[in-house]
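help with these tokens:
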Amino acid sequence: MRIFALTLVTMVAFAANSVLNRVAIVDGGMDAVVFGALRLSAGAVMLAALVAWQGKGFALGGRVRAVGVTSLLAYIFGFSLAYQALDAGVGALILFGVVQVTMFVAALMRGEDVPAQRMLGAGIAVAGLAWLLWPSEALTLPIGAVVLMAAAGVGWGIYSLAGQGAKDATQSSAMNFILAAPVGLAAMFLLPIWGVLSVTGVALAIVSGAVTSGLGYALWYAIIPSLGASRAAVAQLTVPVIAMGGGMVFLAEDLTLRFVICSVLVLGGVALSIRKG
């Protein structure tokens, strides 16, 4: 129950990132790269302060750290740029559908035991995702944004996998953010125009970086070794449904029958995958 509760808190944090990002960029008109850079910087400050308060050191971490930093950057900026054109719920569904595939492939390559029931549940969840993305007159998704979100999904999947081997979740997350933040800031300062820099947008970037990203990702790194790659992949498919609810409440996004049915398929697949046989 403890792992379940912590996983649920983490999934809510992940969903909140979709809503915060979407509000700042679409409603607030904030530049996506600036939002991503500020998000990284806020996460780095929060986690660095936490590590210092705990009296821990700051270790570079070698090749694994390089993988963590690179995948974090791919996720943060792919995510922000994609949300210029995607709704919160749809974006989250694309993101975590790709995450699931990435982590399942890694689990199989590592020889992790993946029961048939878990595979069936994952298949049902992916079918829901595929149906959502199937072109129709009622739903047309911008290809560029879908590709960016898919790249973010691969980045997040790799980032999550890197966390399985972390000896200290907080320290590892802190170093990922601390090393990625200067790259993000450099990208921000290279922009010819920053767009709107509202107080609200900056505040949302700080909350997203310090709380739902920094602390949320540290918690994720702490619990993912107990979940395993395949179970962690399936659990994250609950995020789009939570994000959809947030989008409806905070962004007045439309709730379509198609999205509801797809979400039911995703949640049903997740429930089947994590249920003990």
Observations:
- The mean pLDDT is 83.
